[in-house]
Amino acid sequence: MNNIFEVLFTEEILKRIDNLSANSKPSWGKMDVAQMLAHCSSFQDIAMGYSMPPRGWLGLLVGRFAKTMFYNDKPLPHNMSTIPTILITDKKDFEIERERLKEKITTFQKNGPEACTSHPHPFFGKLSSEQWGHGIYKHLDHHLKQFRV
Asked: Is residue 120 a contact partner of residue 127, using CB atoms and an 8 Å limit?
């Protein structure tokens, strides 16, 4: 299982981000490429402990039963609902968002598992650093596949 804390997988993700362009079109979903990059940056903020959205009632009820979907080998479903605070709908600058996301991924990887948040995921609840590492890779992979890179 790929883990963003491993340099090889971080480098792969960064190269794929570099293969995006401002004109990249999604295979599914409503976000354009700049919004997707901003969304992924906002998700990085959660994993890094910079943002701590509250747990919703649905997550409190079923999140712990569904959390393996965040870090197992199965792809995430297309058009899956997202954390409301990181749903990006306003216009974003592609180049700024791409560089911002790359910086956050690099920082997250370099800081290592010990710097990962201990705050619960807004839907899935408590995650170990290893689960966050797998989940971050999986989330980024999901959105990069959305834009065919």
From this structure: yes
Q: Which residues sit opposite 59 in a β-bridge?
A: none
Q: Is the pTM of this model over 0.85?
A: yes
pLDDT digits (tens, 9 = 90+) for 19-69: 999 999 999 999 999 999 999 999 999 999 999 999 989 999 999 999 999
C-alpha 128/C-alpha 114 separation (Å) is: 10
Contacts of 143 (CB under 8 A, 6+ apart): 36, 39, 40
Three-state secondary structure of 127-148: CCHHHHHHHHHHHHHHHHHHCC
Helical (H) or strand (E) element with 73 = none
Helix (H) or strand (E) holding 3: none
Residue ranges per domain, the chain? 7-18+30-146
Q: What is the pLDDT of residues 74-129, one digit of tens each?
A: 999 998 889 999 999 999 999 999 999 999 999 999 999 999 999 999 999 999 99
Both structure tokens of 110: 């370099």
- Which amino acid would we find at residue 36? M
